[in-house]
Amino acid sequence: MPILYDEQRRCFHLSNDRISYIIRLAAGKYPLHLYWGRRVRAVSDDLLSRLCSYTDADFSLNETPLDSLPQECPVFGCADLCEGMLHILHADGTHALDLQYVSHQITQGKKPLRGLPSARGEHAETLTLTLLDRVSGIEVELLYTLWPDIDILARSARIVNGGASPAVLERALSACVDFEQADFSLLTLSGAWARERQIVTRPLVPGDQGTSTVRGASSAQTSPFMALLSPGTTETAGEVYAFSLCYSGSFTASVHVDQHAMARAQIGIQPFNFSWTLMPGDSFQTPEAYLCFSADGLGGMSRQFHALTHRYITTGRYARSARPLLINNWEATYFDFDEDQLLALARCAKEAGIDLFVLDDGWFGHRDADNSSLGDWYDDVRKLPHGLAGLSEKIHAMGMKFGLWVEPEMVSPDSDLYRAHPDWCIHAGGRPRTEARHQLVLDMSREDVRDYVVTQICAAFRRARVDYVKWDMNRNITMYGSARLPAQRQQELGHRYILGVYDVMRRITAQFPDVLFESCASGGGRFDFGMMCFMPQAWCSDNTDAHTRCRIQYATSLVFPPSTMGAHVSAVPNHQTGRVTPLEARAAVAMGGTYGYELDLLKLPDDELRQIASLNRRVKALQPLLLYGAFYRLKSPFEGNETAWMSVSEDRREAVVTHVFAQAQPNVRPSLLRLAGLDPSLDYREEKTGRVYGGDELMQHGIRIEKPWNDYRAQQFHLTTVSSSAPSVPSGRE
Ligand code: DGJ
After folding, report:
1. What are phi and psi of 548, to 5 degrees?
2. Sign of the C-alpha dihedral, residues 360, 366, 371, 372?
3. Is the Cβ–Cβ distance between 48 and 9 less than 8 Å?
4. Cross-strand pairs, 144
5. How far apart are CA 473 and CA 220, in angstroms?
6. Which of 253, 543, 664, 711 could make an SS bond with 226 (beta carbons 3.0 to 4.6 A apart)?
7. pTM for the whole thing?
8. What is the b/e burial string over 165-189, where b = at least 16 CB atoms within 10 angstroms of the residue's CB?
């Protein structure tokens, strides 16, 4: 799988069987972006000469307006007039940079990024382009990694201060692509708590657009992702250029459309409220960005991101295996529980076939509400007279696994920890500290704070003999300020915080390699590749209402596979919306993620408990396919009254299709749902009806969806192949 360098034409061609990415060194100095898209076999003279007027030998920075050229690493201040990837304040107060090619390296695999999570580089190849600003000594390494089996390019940059004076990074993005056209639509994900990741699409217009956050977390309000859609792009067709960042803090993803209708797309750490001082010899590594090209519409893009997640992002015992079915006590008890209640719930869950009991918030300090005890990670013996150890032992004795909630990054003002170390939280000088959910954020940039957190949290996990952990984070950062950082480094805090979180996660997860970790941030407030590198699943949203969850999961699936999305069946009326939906619908939607329950089973009638037991058997039987199959979205809840999706096994011999109606409509005919991803030459039998269909028929004609007699009706079809010959009768047969 080659990254080729053509010395004569000074051109790098990164390609696999499906995509190409081409860079040319203009006048041997400036890396220009020539092409990204469907694979081209070779770089023709024509392609090269597209930029010929500027790539001849007398190319000179003084005469050439670089901003009219597509560049790989544009910087403002010399011949470029738009915001670029880097902005660096030199010791003399100026910002100019003239980054010129010095050398390159093509290597097998890919090195881990210092301090940051990143994708693994098995089978991959990496190009490192080194550029230098000769006046300041600033050196920039542009890193490009391509895998043979996914249509994604990983990009990041390393900035080294090779000069003799300090320099301050004011903007250090991970990737930039200059497109020579701007006739795209921009798709981003925006939302809020309990309404995370809603799809928003709009045409590009001249000027700036995009999405970003300054909250200190990738956030519920937006996502570190954007996609540029060529005209006419749909779920199944059209060219898509997508960008996603492996980072959990404040970010920007932006597009600038310039005077010539060229579009500059960039992604990286949010420059607002960021700076980083580089002393001579220091270096700074930017987070990794994933650039995905799909010629098969949004569906094709998603399957590439899903493959990236499963093959090169998630690690550990659970990365590709079945996940335990869990029950979480949060919505069953909130803070008001004791050991007997928990054991009764666990017993009932065990009888229904649930594998894992998760104790949520409220087990430590004296936490009877959300206003105390974060940081005091010792057992509340009023609620748990035998401590976590006693409870866990009893749960394990039932034959269940035991899981625990923690919120390691936080401290309550009413806690022993805060009373002992009031300066350990993020705060700005002598101002009153802004609380959110009555809590403060621990200063994870400090090593002493991180050491405390690791020690306390690991001790709790050992006491509890945990099999599963829910790692929560329930507020964003305000009043940026660290008692440890000097004034000129205070703007490093946002990034240092995230590096600190990653350090703590790395140290803790390494000590518990067999534990399943799930990240959470008031639901889906930190759903990003950075978190996925440590924890293979994330609580998708605090919203468990089957109807509105369809939108959240549908949009989340643009980037992340079902195996990453925590999804639970909860009680009705739903605690977030008050809506009443049938159990089948709640279960069908939860099967779109890592399945579990979040309700008091003891309050359910016997027939519902029997139904739950049968659902659990079904989930277990279908789980590998539901979590790891090739994922196809069939109907969008953003466009109508129906949501539908399906997962297809790798050999295309098995599939599960889920269809959910929202409101029932009077006097409608049964409809047809066209499937995708099947083998047209195979016959498939539907499990419940026993009917046999041709794969071609299911994809071209569809499967019949019964008309809904009630709101929120869910239907599921399990298809397995019966033979390899084409069907002779073109409709469902018994
Ligand atoms: C927010 C989470 O999203 C909930 O599931 C729950 O764990 C609460 N925090 C507990 O405080």
Report:
1. -80, -20
2. negative
3. yes
4. 127, 155
5. 12
6. 253
7. 0.97
8. eebbbbbbbbbbbbbeebebbbbbb
The CA distances from residue 709 to 286, 670, 725, in Å, are 53, 11, 37
198: pLDDT strictly greater than 60 = yes
Q: 409 alpha carbon to ligand 1 midpoint, in Å?
A: 14
Distances (CA, A) of 43 to 22, 36, 144: 8, 12, 19
Residue type, 56: D
CA dist 77 and 61 (Å) reads 11
Positions marked catalytic = 472, 542
Is there a contact between 644 and 673 (Cβ–Cβ < 8 Å)?
yes
- What's the mean pLDDT when you consider all of the chain? 95
String of b and e for 148-157 (b: at least 16 CB within 10 Å)? ebbbbbbbbb
DSSP codes, 603-642: GS-HHHHHHHHHHHHHHHHHHHHHHHSEEEEEE-TTTSSE
Pocket of ligand 1 (CB under 6 A): 330, 360-361, 405, 472, 474, 520, 522-523, 539, 542
Site of tokens 């790395």: 506
Say which residue, 669 or 524, is predicted with more confidence.
524
Question: How far away, in angstroms, is 541 Cα from ligand 1 center?
Answer: 10
> Residue 466 and residue 469: Cα distance in Å, rounded?
7
Q: Phi/psi of residue 161, each to 5°?
A: -90, 95
Distance 520 CA to ligand 1 centre (A): 8
Q: Which helix (H) or strand (E) holds 462?
A: helix 447-464
**Per-residue model confidence as pLDDT tens digits over 530-584:** 999 999 999 999 999 999 999 999 999 999 999 999 999 999 999 999 999 999 9
Is residue 677 within 8 Å of residue 655, measured between CB atoms?
A: yes
Beta strands in 624-688 (DSSP E): 630-635, 642-648, 654-661, 671-673, 683-686
Q: How far is CA 405 from CA 144, 236, 382, 399, 470, in A?
A: 38, 40, 18, 20, 5
How far apart CA 306 and CA 236 sit, in angstroms, is: 16
Interval between CA 191 and ligand 1 midpoint (Å): 18
Please answer whether residues 264 and 178 qualify as being in contact, where contact means their C-beta atoms are separated by less than 8 angstroms. Answer: yes
For the segment 422-478, what is each residue's pLDDT rounded down to a tens digit? 999 999 998 999 999 999 999 999 999 999 999 999 999 999 999 999 999 999 999
Q: How far apart are CA 685 and CA 720, in angstroms?
A: 5
> Going by CA atoms, what residue is nearest to atom 10 of ligand 1?
361
Question: Six-digit token pair at 7?
Answer: 């010395």
Residue 51's contacts (CB-CB under 8 Å, 6 or more residues apart) are 24, 26, 32, 34, 69, 70
**676-689 pLDDT tens trace:** 999 999 999 999 99
Residue nearest to atom 2 of ligand 1 (CA): 522
Phi and psi angles of residue 726, each rounded to the nearest 5 degrees, phi first: -70, 140
Amino acid at 649: S
Residue 433 has phi, psi (to 5 degrees) of -80, 130
Q: Are strands 692-694 and 683-686 parallel, antiparallel or unpaired?
A: antiparallel
Backbone angles phi, psi at 683, to 5 degrees: -100, 145
Specify the pLDDT at position 726.
47
Place of tokens 């690991």: 458
Question: How many other C-beta atoms are found inside a 10 Å radius of the C-beta of residue 300?
Answer: 20
The residue-averaged pLDDT of 12-40 equals 94
- 542 Cα nearest atom in ligand 1: 3
pLDDT at 239: 98
The closest of 694, 719, 318, 279 to 536, measured between CA atoms, is: 318
